[in-house]
């Protein structure tokens, strides 16, 4: 996006200031947050505006100027209070009581056109009481990476926060993991909620079950509304959270996403995915693929994600035990594996072209697919895209024709696993009528876009920004992601 010419205007006409804000969290009282002020930046250059989410806020994209974004989300004019939320969390297995919004705040909560409440939360907006000596800032590359991850995951069908905007702020930052000095940005995230597992953990740490209960009532009222009025709404809340998280992890696993930092302060109480730091999409199927260079023991590697999220849910039982019967909590968590497996199976079968596959061979196909992908180390995303690209009704005629026009898979007769896979896929295709093959082809295309947000792809759009401030490749990549191509 070319930052368009900006013009002065009266801030009272800024459409971001007249949205349906609700002081939902603020009204809980100041046990949960600290009021903070935003940093003042030397520069404000709008680098990204997410026009795709504006209609959901009831805004007409044509009527929102770049200056509106900058005054609201770069200069933070006209909105108060800005709230740094308090939370703790288990980080790489260790409890950390010195956390909280250290480089962000809750800008506001908005009732959107879908009737849901959304949080606008910042990242890189200055120091707070929780900065722990940090500079309160976000690097430009960090902003670029989070914008890309959120859009990519959203269009792949993952339940995720989105970025509303990202503004370059003109500071020189020093970071150990980027060539420094490096450029700065402030990002505004739109999420279903910024209440984290760690928000409850902090209240437990301070032995305040009264505050935990008040917060849980708030969570149910806003994010689990259908449970209001149920006699055992607290137990039902936990059971549903377990389901939401299990399904979220299944979504990550199917699209080949490794979050990288699954600390309990990065787990949302609504079951939404957020905080995209050192994440990566897996290049090939490697269970031990680890995205964060500082994750020395592979704690949060790709295949550990289901068990780690289950563990995080178990840790959340400690603060919830003051409100929910431990037996109910245990029963809720016991369903995690089942929810995960059902969702993962269904999503993977979709990637293979099947909306519903009740044949006994379904699991065999899934296992064989994973085995082939792991043994061959063929590109994970590339393989599914190639299936979609080369799909032909002829695949029903004989196994040797399955994917025979693709040059990324082994030639027929050269790989026993792949040959077995072709035999099975061919067999399953023959369960369907000829007319149904169009549906399979369409499902393959819908589920497996060509554009995969692999690290080299991110670097290929970052490099022109870094070298010559050329944002065109970044804009083009986002357009491709948003069009599902
Ligand atoms: N540059 C920084 N200055 C101050 N605090 C920071 C900085 N970077 C991270 N933190 C704080 O360190 C903790 C862990 O950071 P983490 O990267 O998980 O969160 P975050 O990315 O800053 O925010 P979010 O979880 O909302 O995406 C948080 O309390 C965060 O506020
Ligand atoms: Mg975080």
Automatic annotation (TrEMBL):
Pfam families: SelO. InterPro entries: SelO. Its cofactor is Mg(2+); Mn(2+). ATP binds at residues 100, 102-103, 123, 135-136, 189, 196, 275. It comes from the Bacteria. It catalyses: L-tyrosyl-[protein] + ATP = O-(5'-adenylyl)-L-tyrosyl-[protein] + diphosphate; L-threonyl-[protein] + ATP = 3-O-(5'-adenylyl)-L-threonyl-[protein] + diphosphate; L-seryl-[protein] + ATP = 3-O-(5'-adenylyl)-L-seryl-[protein] + diphosphate; L-seryl-[protein] + UTP = O-(5'-uridylyl)-L-seryl-[protein] + diphosphate. Mg(2+) binds at residues 266, 275. PANTHER family: PROTEIN ADENYLYLTRANSFERASE SELO, MITOCHONDRIAL (PTHR32057). Nucleotidyltransferase involved in the post-translational modification of proteins. It can catalyze the addition of adenosine monophosphate (AMP) or uridine monophosphate (UMP) to a protein, resulting in modifications known as AMPylation and UMPylation. This is Protein nucleotidyltransferase YdiU. It comes from Atlanticothrix silvestris CENA357.
């Amino acid at each position: 996006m070319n930052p368009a010419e900006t013009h002065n205007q009266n801030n009272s006409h800024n459409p971001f200031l007249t949205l349906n804000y609700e002081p939902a969290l603020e009204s809980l009282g100041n046990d949960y947050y600290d009021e903070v002020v935003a940093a003042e930046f030397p520069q404000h250059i709008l680098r990204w505006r997410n026009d795709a989410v504006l209609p959901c806020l009831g805004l007409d994209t044509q009527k929102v100027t770049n200056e509106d974004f900058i005054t609201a989300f770069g200069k933070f004019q006209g909105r108060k209070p800005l709230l740094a939320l308090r939370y703790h969390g288990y980080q790489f297995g260790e409890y950390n009581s010195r956390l909280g919004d250290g480089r962000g705040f809750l800008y506001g909560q908005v009732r959107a056109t879908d009737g849901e409440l959304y949080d606008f939360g910042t990242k890189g907006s200055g120091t707070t009481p929780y900065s722990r000596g940090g500079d309160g800032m976000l690097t430009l590359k960090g902003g670029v990476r989070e914008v890309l991850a959120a859009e990519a995951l959203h269009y792949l069908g993952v339940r995720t926060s989105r970025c509303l905007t990202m503004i370059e702020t003109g500071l020189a930052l020093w970071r150990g993991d980027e060539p420094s000095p490096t450029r700065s940005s402030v990002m505004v995230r739109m999420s279903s909620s910024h209440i984290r597992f760690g928000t409850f953990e902090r209240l437990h740490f301070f032995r305040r079950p009264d505050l935990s209960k008040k917060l849980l009532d708030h969570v149910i009222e806003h994010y689990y509304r259908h449970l209001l009025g149920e006699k055992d709404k607290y137990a039902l809340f936990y059971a549903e959270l377990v389901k939401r998280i299990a399904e979220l992890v299944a979504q990550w696993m199917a699209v080949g996403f490794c979050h990288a930092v699954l600390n309990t302060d990065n787990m949302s109480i609504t079951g939404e995915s957020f905080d995209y730091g050192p994440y990566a999409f897996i290049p090939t199927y490697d269970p031990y693929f680890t995205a964060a260079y500082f994750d020395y023991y592979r704690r949060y590697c790709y295949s550990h994600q289901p068990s780690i999220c289950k563990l995080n849910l178990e840790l959340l039982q400690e603060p919830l035990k003051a409100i929910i019967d431990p037996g109910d909590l245990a029963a809720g968590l016991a369903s995690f594996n089942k929810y995960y497996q059902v969702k993962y199976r269904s999503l993977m079968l979709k990637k293979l072209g099947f909306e519903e596959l009740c044949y006994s061979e379904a699991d065999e196909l899934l296992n064989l697919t994973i085995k082939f992908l792991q043994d061959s180390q063929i590109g994970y995303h590339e393989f599914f895209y190639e299936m979609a690209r080369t799909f032909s009704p002829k695949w029903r005629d004989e196994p040797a024709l399955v994917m025979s026009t693709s040059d990324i898979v082994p030639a027929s007769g050269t790989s026993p696993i792949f040959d077995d896979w072709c035999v099975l896929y061919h067999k399953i295709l023959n369960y369907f009528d000829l007319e149904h093959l169009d549906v399979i082809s369409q499902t393959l295309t819908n589920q497996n876009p060509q554009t995969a947000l692999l690290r080299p792809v991110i670097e290929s759009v970052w490099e022109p920004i870094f070298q010559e401030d050329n944002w065109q490749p970044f804009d083009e990549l986002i357009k491709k992601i948003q069009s599902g191509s």
